[in-house]
Amino acid sequence: MSVKWTADTIPDQAGRTAIVTGANSGLGYVTALELARHGAQVVVACRNVAKGEAAALEIAAAGGTKPEVRELDLGSLASVRGFADELSGRQVDLLVNNAGVMMTPRQTTSDGFELQLGTNHLGHFALTGRLLDALQRSDSARVVTLSSNEHKGGTLDPDDLQMGRDYSPRGAYRRSKLANAFAIELDRRLRSAGAKTISVFAHPGYSATNLQSSGPTGAAKALMAITNKIVAQSAERGALPTLYAATAPGVEGGAYYGPDGRAEMRGFPKQVKAIPEAYDPGIGMRLWAASEALTGVHYPLEGALA
Question: Staple 24 to which of 5, 51, 126, 137, CB 3.0 to 4.6 Å?
Answer without folding.
Answer: 51
